[in-house]
């Protein structure tokens, strides 16, 4: 079974790329994540009989032997099919216009720096002389225009313009595209924009006019990307970031827009565990204050380092460890006595995994407390070397949603650094 999928918070470029892939790979099943952009959700609700998409719950991952990934190259952005990540026998085909290589190992890929991913796929459709219906052409052009800002973003290429012309020749309807891409801007968005403008603050970083605007929001607020785009233009900033802190949900939504080549917003957002392209991107961070997110963004853009402190200065040692044959009930006692949330699993000096309090949720029966740790531990362990900095540690922890990093040197565990260690130093976690 072959499936096609794309990144969570699916936009029109991603949706268009999925549909294009169904034409290039007619035997494949399109699978969309649960999280899609509101305008895409509205489009699909009207066109669900034309574009028949499956949800992750409809797919038996054990039957999948081929995966087509479009518009992303990072497993964290397709976590709705994360069961496939550890498969060594899986064929992976990738179409992507982001050039920062991430962590998906492919069997075949096409990566070129286009303004929109659908441009790459339109080129292939044209080369293979595939027939396009007017509604397919319209969707593809909507994705192209959305990701290139109607061909005005600095990331736009000549190839994007040629692809747009080809889709117009195939009866893409500009009137429909105008309605699809019309931003959701109502009273709620207006109030957010007014508050941002009242607190406008810009500064020069490496000669670039940057505005980082923080504000608190309550509940769900849609259309924030539109608000940040408008804010950047009105504030006359080269680059603008909106950091929206929701204390009820203990998260920060970060949205960035850039109008200059010198600042790649997509790269900044990938450092925060999100994604995007040169001119636009977003990320969601949990448990970090807006003030620290601002410091993080400023540090990334400036390229500076706050200090020469390394992980070796922060880590705890010697490390409390257990063997893979330790019983789960003994681990529970150890975690309680030591007041820690997890420990590395080590056999003969070699790191085998990590067992944490979170893993105890896997136990369905009390008798499983007599099972060895190796039955429930996490084997795919994210580690860090002692010469890295606190910012790299915090980045890994946020990206992988983990609370500790074993520190590895010459293949041995020499220490452990926790989320609290790194983020108290560099990011100052919000209180629980």
Task: Write the topology of this structure.
Layout: E1 2-6, H1 12-24, E2 29-31, H2 38-47, E3 66-70, E4 91-96, E5 108-111, H3 117-127, H4 134-148, H5 158-169, H6 174-180, H7 187-198, E6 202-205, E7 208-216, H8 224-235, E8 239-246, E9 251-258, H9 265-271, E10 275-276, E11 280-286, H10 290-302, H11 311-314, H12 328-338, E12 342-347, E13 350-356, H13 390-400, E14 404-409, E15 412-418, H14 419-426
Helix pairs in contact: 1-3, 1-4, 3-4, 3-5, 4-5, 4-6, 7-8, 13-14
Detailed description of the structure:
The chain is built from 14 helices and 15 strands. It has 432 residues and is an alpha/beta fold. The chain folds into three domains: 179 residues, inorganic pyrophosphatase (n-terminal core), CATH 3.90.1640.10; 116 residues, Diaminopimelate Epimerase, Chain A, domain 1; 116 residues, CBS-domain (Roll). The protein has a six-stranded mixed beta sheet, sandwiched between helices. Strands 2-1-3-4-5 form a five-stranded parallel beta sheet. Strands 12-13 form a two-stranded antiparallel sheet. Strand 10 and strand 11 form a beta hairpin. The longest helix is centred in the N-terminal third of the chain and has 15 residues. The chain is globular, with a radius of gyration of 23 Å.
């Amino acid at each position: 079974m072959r499936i096609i999928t794309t990144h969570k918070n699916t936009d029109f470029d991603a949706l268009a790329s999925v549909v294009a892939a169904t034409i290039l790979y007619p035997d494949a099943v399109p699978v969309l994540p649960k999280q899609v952009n509101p305008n895409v959700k509205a489009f699909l609700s009207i066109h669900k009989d034309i574009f028949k998409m499956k949800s992750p719950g409809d797919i038996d991952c054990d039957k999948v032997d081929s995966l087509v990934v479009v518009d992303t190259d990072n497993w964290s952005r397709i976590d709705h099919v994360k069961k496939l990540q550890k498969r060594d026998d899986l064929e992976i085909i990738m179409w992507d216009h982001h050039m920062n290589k991430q962590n998906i190992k492919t069997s075949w890929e096409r990566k070129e720096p286009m303004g929109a991913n659908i441009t790459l796929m339109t080129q292939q459709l044209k080369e293979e002389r595939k027939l396009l219906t007017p509604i397919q052409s319209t969707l593809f052009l909507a994705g192209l225009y959305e990701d290139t800002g109607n061909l005005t973003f600095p990331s736009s290429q000549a190839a994007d313009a040629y692809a747009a012309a080809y889709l117009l020749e195939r009866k893409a309807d500009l009137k429909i595209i105008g309605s699809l891409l019309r931003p959701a801007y109502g009273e709620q968005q207006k109030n957010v924009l007014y508050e941002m403008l009242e607190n406008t603050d810009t500064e020069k970083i490496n000669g670039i006019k940057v505005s980082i605007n923080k504000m608190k929001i309550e509940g769900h607020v849609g259309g924030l990307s539109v608000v940040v785009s408008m804010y950047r233009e009105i504030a006359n900033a080269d680059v603008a970031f909106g950091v929206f802190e929701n204390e009820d949900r203990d998260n920060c939504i970060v949205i960035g827009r850039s109008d200059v080549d010198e600042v790649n917003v997509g790269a900044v957002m990938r450092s925060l565990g999100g994604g995007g392209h040169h001119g636009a991107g977003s990320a969601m961070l949990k448990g970090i204050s807006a003030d620290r997110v601002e410091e993080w963004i400023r540090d990334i853009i400036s390229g500076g380092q706050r200090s020469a402190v390394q992980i070796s200065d922060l880590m705890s040692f010697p490390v409390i460890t257990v063997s893979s044959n330790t019983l789960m009930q003994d681990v529970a006692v150890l975690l309680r006595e030591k007041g820690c949330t997890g420990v590395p699993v080590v056999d003969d000096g070699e790191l085998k995994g990590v067992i944490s309090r979170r893993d105890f949720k896997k136990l369905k029966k009390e008798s499983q407390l007599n099972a060895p740790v190796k039955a429930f531990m996490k084997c795919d362990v994210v580690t860090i070397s002692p010469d890295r900095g606190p910012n790299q540690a915090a980045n890994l922890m946020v990206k992988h949603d983990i609370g500790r990093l074993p520190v590895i040197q010459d293949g041995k565990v020499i220490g452990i650094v926790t989320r609290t260690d790194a983020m108290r130093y560099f990011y100052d976690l919000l209180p629980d």
